[in-house]
């Protein structure tokens, strides 16, 4: 088995598309690392670079500390399972699994061992048409693993399956990779799948790494507003806010109501260096409080819509906040100077700056000025976000247990806010800690 490292890896295609942008990542021996991000963020290109199906424009791939850039795919000893794997319909399960080994000595034993690991020992004589979707998936995995690869690469292995089976198989696929103990890179655009299967998740956007961490870390402690927005169902509530000092603490003005951090809040000092921020509140950081809590932070709103889910309701509240423009959550990454450097032959040397670092001056410069309101400063927003019909996007979303009684549209609700779980981001999308 083998640790995999990506070392300032970049891939720029001939047409100028920056698919991977200065990506550094270490995957431990035997670890299951999920590459997660929206379509086009470069996930598959990273896998292809690791497999040797593409060569990097800059940077290196290392296996066990050794650079493998010069090695052909067949000499890297990696196994890949793609979304559209194909089994040979006229061959049995045993023949399908053994296919990569042809007539190598000891095939029977290797096939039997792979089949046992994947729970296929009882179906070795069947043909693919006689298998369930899950069994077929496992045969594809067994076939990939029979050569005992150093690294296992899975590219959206469940994407073609229906939702129910996908849900069932994701734990099975992860358990299999763990049982085999092989270092695994698993690509998906499905954040639920990523959180369910990963030892660690690497969140990519625009070819660049936004954060890598355990599922709990990336969910609870997102490094950027993009990570906060991309992970979690329902989505994190993201609103624009203006910051000003108040009674030794800090007040974040959300437009029609405020949240105040007490003077002893560790973030207060850092927050005061910013005029405008984005606040993030996961639905599970909010609790419907009827009647209103005394003392603690709270927000109020009128119920617009309730989605019933049996044991709970997802409640959409019009809380008068202004949603973060999508442009802020989907941070753009192109940088002509950086691109020119990558395309230069030989590639230009450092300095490399992080994507966020590059964006910071530009986004800060574009941020509009704020204006005074009855609370202090009213955040000024991009015109698109202040259109009357965009208000539904600004709803505050929370979960309410059905047992406590669900509110009805039109009800006024007070929601207590767990300030420890309040996420704060600057105008470049970077977390304020
Ligand atoms: N051979 C190629 N030539 C030019 N551009 C390419 C090539 N292959 C991929 N791209 C582009 O590189 C970017 C990253 O593609 P990639 O397939 O790695 O994304 P992805 O995150 O895996 O997306 P998806 O989830 O849709 O598969 C995309 O903009 C894609 O259009």
From TrEMBL:
SUPFAM superfamilies named among the record's database cross-references: MOP-like (SSF50331), P-loop containing nucleoside triphosphate hydrolases (SSF52540)
Annotated keywords: ATP-binding, Nucleotide-binding, Sugar transport, Transport
GO MF annotation terms: ABC-type transporter activity; ATP binding; ATP hydrolysis activity
Residue intervals of the ABC transporter domain: 4-231
Pfam families hit by this protein: ABC_tran (PF00005)
Gene Ontology terms: cellular component: ATP-binding cassette (ABC) transporter complex, substrate-binding subunit-containing
Source organism, top-level taxon: Bacteria
InterPro entries on file: AAA+_ATPase, ABC_transporter-like_ATP-bd, ABC_transporter-like_CS, ABC_transpr_MalK/UgpC-like, Mo/tungstate-bd_C_term_dom, NA-bd_OB-fold, P-loop_NTPase
The keyword Hydrolase belongs to this UniProt entry's keyword annotation: no
UniProt keyword Nucleotide-binding, yes or no: yes
Protein name from the UniProt record: Multiple sugar transport system ATP-binding protein
Organism of provenance: Catenuloplanes atrovinosus
């Amino acid at each position: 088995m083998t640790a995999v490292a990506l070392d300032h890896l970049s891939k720029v295609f001939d047409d100028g598309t920056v698919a991977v942008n200065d990506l550094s990542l270490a995957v431990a021996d035997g670890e299951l690392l999920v590459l997660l991000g929206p379509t086009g963020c470069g996930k598959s290109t990273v896998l292809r670079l690791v497999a040797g199906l593409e060569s990097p424009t800059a940077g290196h791939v290392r296996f066990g500390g050794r650079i493998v850039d010069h090695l052909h795919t067949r000499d890297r000893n990696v196994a890949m399972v793609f979304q559209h794997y194909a089994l040979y319909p006229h061959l049995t399960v045993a023949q399908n699994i053994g296919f990569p080994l042809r007539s190598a000595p000891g095939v029977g034993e290797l096939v039997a061992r792979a089949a046992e690991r994947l729970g296929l020992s009882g179906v070795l004589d069947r043909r693919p048409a006689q298998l369930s979707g899950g069994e077929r998936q496992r045969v594809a995995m067994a076939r990939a693993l029979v050569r005992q690869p150093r690294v296992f690469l899975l590219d959206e292995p469940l994407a073609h399956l229906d939702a129910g089976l996908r849900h069932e198989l994701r734990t099975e696929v992860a358990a299999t990779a763990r049982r085999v103990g092989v270092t695994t890179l698993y690509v998906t655009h499905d954040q639920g799948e990523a959180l369910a299967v990963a030892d660690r998740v690497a969140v990519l956007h625009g070819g660049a790494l936004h954060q890598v961490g355990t599922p709990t870390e990336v969910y609870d402690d997102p490094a950027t507003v993009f990570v906060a927005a991309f992970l979690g169902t329902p989505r994190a509530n993201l609103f624009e806010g203006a910051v000003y000092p108040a009674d030794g603490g800090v007040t974040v003005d959300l437009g029609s109501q405020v949240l105040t951090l007490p003077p002893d809040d560790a973030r207060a000092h850092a927050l005061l260096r910013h005029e405008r921020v984005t606040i993030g509140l996961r639905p599970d950081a909010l609790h419907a409080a009827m009647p209103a809590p005394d003392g603690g932070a709270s927000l109020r709103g009128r119920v617009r819509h309730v989605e019933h889910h049996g044991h709970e309701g997802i409640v959409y509240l019009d809380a008068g906040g202004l949603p973060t423009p999508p442009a802020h959550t989907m941070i753009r990454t192109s940088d002509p100077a950086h691109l020119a450097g990558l395309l230069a032959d030989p590639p230009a040397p450092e300095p490399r700056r992080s994507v966020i670092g590059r964006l910071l001056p530009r986004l800060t410069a574009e941020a509009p000025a704020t204006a005074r309101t009855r609370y202090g400063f009213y955040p000024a927003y991009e015109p698109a976000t202040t259109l009357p019909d965009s208000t539904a996007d600004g709803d505050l979303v929370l979960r309410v247990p059905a047992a406590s009684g669900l509110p009805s549209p039109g009800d006024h609700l007070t929601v207590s806010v767990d300030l420890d779980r309040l996420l704060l981001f600057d105008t470049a999308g970077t977390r304020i800690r």
